[in-house]
Specification:
Strand content: 5-15%
CATH class of the largest domain: Alpha Beta
Bound molecules: 5-S-methyl-5-thio-alpha-D-ribofuranose, magnesium ion
Largest sheet: 5 strands, antiparallel
Number of domains: 2
Structural class: alpha+beta
Shape: globular
Strand order of the largest sheet: 1-2-3-7-6
Radius of gyration: 22 Å
C-alpha cells in the first residue's frame, strides 16, 4: 500500500489526520473533543498541543525547511525518524528522563508524545531566576546513562555497529552542527549576526589563530570520534522543568560523537545563563545568589556525571572496550580504575572545548539564545556577551589545563566583574 504523501499539519487538520490513531485517541480521547494549538518556538519544527476529553499530547512534526530561516533553507524530514530513534534509546538507557513516545509516523515526519503538564523550558526558567532542586544530578545522570550505555563501553558490538550505521544517516543535522558550531563563528559567514558593539572583540577572536586551530581540532573530534550516541543539541532549550522534575527533549540532532559534546554544551548554557543575569535580575544580592545556584547546578551536573559514569564502569562495562578479562579477572582492578580516570579526563577536556565553541556560536552565529537576545539595553547586552566570548576562548584554549568545575565557575565569577569593551 502506498503511504500518504507528507503534508505539514495545521491546528485545523490535526484531528482529521491523527484522529484514527489508537495510541493518540488513548491519550487524548475522541478527536471530536480535541482542541489544537501550535506552540513551536524552536528553530526547526511544528509543535502542537492537542487537548482532548481524555488528556493532552504533543505532536511534533518536521517541516521540509529550517523554520528559523524559511523555505530558502531546505532540510530533510528524516530528522523526525532520528528523533524518534534517539528518544526510544534514551528512554531505555535513562528511564523516566524523556517524554514517552506514543506514536511515530515516518512518512509524515511526526512523533506523538507525552505532554509534560506544568513544565516550562529550562532556559526560560533560568532567565526568571527559578531554582530547580536536583537539576544538576538529573542532567549528570542523564548524560552518564545515555552516553555510557550508548557506547562501546556498554553496548553489544553488533547492536552498536548497526546503530552507528543508522545514525550516520542524520547527515544534514550533523552538517548544521559542524558549520554553525565549529566554523561559522570564526569568520564572517553569511547568516551570522552579533551585537555591533562587540566588533572589536569579534575581530580579535577571528584573527586568533590558536583559537581557530583549536576550534577545528574540536570539529575533528566531533566529526571523527564516534564514541557514543549523543543527544546532539543538549542546551537548556532542550530541557523541560517543573519544580524538582525535569525531562530532556528534542534529540533530533542525535549522532555518534564524543561524549564531551553533550556535557560541554550543557555547561556552556549554564555559564551563559549566569553571565546574562545582569540583563534579567536587577537586584544585586538576588542576582549573585542565583548566579551561585546556576554555577552550582553546572558543578553538580559534572559531579553526578562522573559518579554515575564510574558506577556504570564498575557494574555495566560489557562492551568491547577495557574488557574485564584484561583487568578485574586478572586481579587488576586498579588497571580498570586507571583506564576509567583516563577516559573521564578525556571527556572533561573535550567538554571544556565544546563548551567554549558553544558559547561563541550562541553570540556570533545564526542561532542565538534568549538570555542574551532578550536584553534590550544594547550596551548591557554587549557587555554580557563580551564576557561570554572571553570565557569561551579561555575554555577552548585552556581545555588541557583547567582541572575542575571549581576553576571553571571561579573564572566565570571573575569575568562577570570585568568589562571587555
Ligand atoms: C538551523 S538550526 C540552528 C540551531 O537550532 C538547533 O536548536 C540547533 O542548536 C542548531 O544548531
Ligand atoms: Mg531543538
Amino acid at each position: 500500500m502506498d503511504s500518504i504523501p507528507y503534508k505539514a499539519l495545521t491546528p485545523e487538520t490535526v484531528a482529521t489526520r491523527l484522529g484514527d490513531i489508537a495510541a493518540v485517541r488513548a491519550h487524548a480521547g475522541p478527536p471530536e473533543s480535541w482542541k489544537v494549538v501550535e506552540v513551536g518556538d524552536g528553530n526547526l519544527n511544528l509543535v502542537f498541543i492537542v487537548t482532548g476529553a481524555q488528556g493532552q499530547v504533543i505532536v511534533k512534526q518536521a517541516l521540509p525547511y529550517v523554520r528559523l530561516v524559511g523555505e530558502s533553507w531546505p532540510l530533510p524530514l528524516n530528522r523526525s525518524f532520528f528523533e524518534y530513534h534517539a528518544l526510544i534509546r534514551q528512554a531505555a538507557r535513562a528511564p523516566g528522563s524523556v517524554p514517552e513516545v506514543y506514536h511515530h509516523d515516518e512518512a509524515q515526519a511526526l512523533v506523538v508524545m507525552e505532554f509534560l503538564a506544568d513544565h516550562v523550558i529550562l532556559r526560560q526558567s533560568l532567565m526568571a531566576g527559578t531554582r530547580h532542586p536536583g537539576l544538576g544530578a538529573f542532567l549528570g545522570r542523564f548524560c552518564a546513562q545515555t552516553l555510557f550505555r550508548g557506547s562501546d563501553l556498554g553496548m553489544d558490538t553488533a547492536e552498536r555497529k548497526r546503530d552507528l550505521a543508522l545514525f550516520a544517516g542524520n547527515i544534514e543535522l550533523c552538517d548544521i552542527t559542524e558549520n554553525l558550531v565549529f566554523t561559522d563563528p570564526y569568520f564572517a559567514a553569511e547568516m551570522n549576526r552579533h551585537t555591533p558593539a562587540l566588533d572589536p572583540v569579534v575581530a580579535s577572536l577571528r584573527a586568533d589563530r590558536d583559537l581557530k586551530v583549536a576550534a577545528q581540532h574540536l570539529k575533528a573530534a566531533f566529526a571523527n570520534n564516534a564514541e557514543a550516541l549523543l543527544h546532539g543539541d543538549l542546551h537548556t532549550g532542550s530541557v523541560m522543568v517543573s519544580g524538582d522534575r525535569a525531562r530532556v527533549i528534542d534529540p533530533e540532532f542525535a549522532t555518534y560523537g564524543p561524549m564531551g559534546f553533550d556535557v560541554g554544551m550543557l555547561i556552556a548554557n549554564f555559564l551563559m545563563a549566569a553571565l546574562a543575569l545582569p540583563g534579567h535580575l536587577d537586584d544585586r544580592a538576588e542576582r549573585d545568589s542565583y548566579r551561585d545556584w546556576v554555577l552550582q547546578t553546572a558543578t553538580e551536573m559534572w559531579e553526578h556525571f562522573s559518579a554515575e559514569f564510574t558506577r556504570l564502569w564498575r557494574t555495566e562495562r560489557r562492551g568491547i572496550l577495557y574488557a574485564a578479562s584484561l583487568f578485574e579477572d586478572q586481579g587488576d582492578g586498579l588497571g580498570a580504575e586507571q583506564a576509567r580516570l583516563d577516559r573521564l579526563a578525556a571527556i572533561w577536556r573535550d567538554a571544556l572545548g565544546f563548551c567554549g565553541v558553544e558559547m561563541h556560536r550562541r553570540i556570533l552565529g545564526l542561532a542565538h539564545i534568549a538570555e542574551y537576545d532578550q536584553i534590550e539595553d544594547e550596551a548591557l547586552r554587549a557587555t554580557c556577551e563580551a564576557r561570554g566570548l572571553v570565557r569561551g576562548r579561555a575554555l577552548v584554549i585552556g581545555r588541557g589545563s583547567i582541572r575542575d568545575m571549581a576553576e571553571v565557575t571561579e573564572l566565570a565569577r571573575h569575568i562577570m566583574e570585568r568589562d571587555y569593551l
